[in-house]
């Protein structure tokens, strides 16, 4: 019986210590306590002063909506030719052209297939556009592409980049309408 009492006493003391520790560490809400306003003193003023010839930009000067670029071009591969390559215009001096979308609408003799490319500033890197057949219209097959892309063309050059059409045969006429959309960005 004594042994049971020692263990019970030890358990009761441990439980009492645990409850006491929890009571001391648990935050208690003060009754009737009011929150007080805190005032911050010595708040500094910030002044920005620039001369008229060096204004501070206060707008999003590089917003694409401010300098949109759209170029529409008709291209043809004449009878006897298998490849046609044209140059699209360069970006103006101190600007960069960012091309974001290219659309192609091509009419090809029914027995032929075509591949269409576009380049950016580097004329040796051709990006093939994904053409989808729309079916036969009269004696021509119609292929279209409407493709998001990201190409950069640095301004001030002699040419912007290239549009290129290659076809499987050199007979008859291939024609295509291109639309290039994007925007201009000011260079530093």
Rounded to the nearest angstrom, the radius of gyration is 37 Å
Structural class: mainly beta
What is the helix content?
A: 10-25%
Class of the domain at 68-186 in CATH? Answer: Mainly Beta
What is the strand arrangement across the widest sheet?
Answer: 1-9-3-7-6
- The poorly predicted ranges are none
Number of strands: 9
Shape: elongated
First-last Cα distance: 92 Å
Helices and strands, in order, run as HEEEEEEEEE
Overall pLDDT = 84
Structural summary, described in words:
The chain has about 190 residues and is mainly β. The chain has 1 helix and 9 strands. The protein has a domain of about 120 residues: Sandwich (Jelly Rolls), CATH 2.60.120. The strands form 2 sheets. Strands 1-9-3-7-6 form a 5-stranded antiparallel beta sheet, with no helix packed on it. Strand 4 and strand 5 form a beta hairpin. The chain is elongated, with a radius of gyration of 37 Å. The protein starts with a helix and ends with a strand. The mean pLDDT is about 85.
Describe the SSE topology.
Blueprint: H1 2-25, E1 68-77, E2 83-88, E3 95-109, E4 114-119, E5 126-128, E6 132-137, E7 140-154, E8 161-167, E9 174-186
Antiparallel strand pairs: 1-9, 2-8, 3-7, 3-9, 4-5, 4-8, 6-7
